[in-house]
Amino acid sequence: MGILRKMFGFVVSLFRNSSSPIAAASSQPVHRIDAGLYVAVAFLVAGVTLGVLHSGAWIFGGIALALIIIGSTMMEVTEPDRAGYMLFSRYIGPIDSGWHFPIAGIMDCCHRPGKDLTLDLGTMKVFTSRKTPITAKVTVNYRLGSTADDLKNACLRLPKNFAEAEKMFRETAESEIRSVLGKGDFGKLIPEQEILEKQAKEKIADDYKQWGFEVTGVKIRDFDEEVESEAMRIRIQGLAEADVRKANAEVLKDNWQAAAVTIGDSLARAYSGGSGKKGKKKPQEDGGDEAEDKTDQNPVSAVVQGVAQAVRGAVGGRRRRS
Length: 322
Known about the structure:
- This protein is an alpha+beta fold.
- The protein folds into 3 domains: 2-112, no CATH class; 117-225, Tetrahydropterin Synthase, Chain A, CATH 3.30.479.30; 230-279 and 292-321, no CATH class.
- It has 9 helices and 10 strands.
- A 3-stranded antiparallel beta sheet has the order 3-2-5, sandwiched between helices. Strands 6-7-8 form a 3-stranded antiparallel beta sheet, covered by helices on one side.
- A hairpin with a 5-residue loop joins β6 (117-127) and β7.
């Protein structure tokens, strides 16, 4: 009973000492996290005690449980990496480098890399201000900030598994790169490469600051303009022609004479095959001047052209009388 009383007092003192930083400032350093090691020792002592009182099997059981707990809780923090102490998901302070034995969810250790990190975004496809697609290779260099607040933000605002946090860094960087490259056109990207990199670095740094990380550099290179497919080229050309037709329609909306002439010309070109060519010239039999051969002209096209010429004459005569 005396041994159990001592174990209980040891566990109580452990929690009391671990909670003492809460009363202090949140930036107080915590040198070590030995919660898992203490629990393992408690199971070992309990196994030995029960083994002495009852059966030797309890001793082997206590040793096995102690080894399992130590193996599942032990972790090492090596420089330049940094880590924070989390008590019931509440940030307490930074911890020293070395071996620690945290218990997940209770006395936890939030580990964050302290070395320079490189985020390779690969080849990104971006649409410029003229809606033309371009590609560029982008690399972002970043690292954990040096202050205690940076470590605190990195522990509280990012997932515990840093591999999951990298997805957040990637999505944010891609969004900012698109906003920077999408403001200009392809011809200005290469001459303004350094300016674009500076703008991208400032935007990404503002986003990463909330997570306790700082951006050390952004590299944008290998600009290339994608060649559109034939179908896309035809679509773009059709949209441009539609804009021209819309502008012409606005001009002809209140001018029926000009509209009639335009319609007549369009019908004439349509019925003549779209070539708009006149009849062939052939020499006369008496050796005179060449005469126009109208035998190959479409009759309907001839009628439409005649109507169009008549409208032109009427419009011209009306203008002269006015």
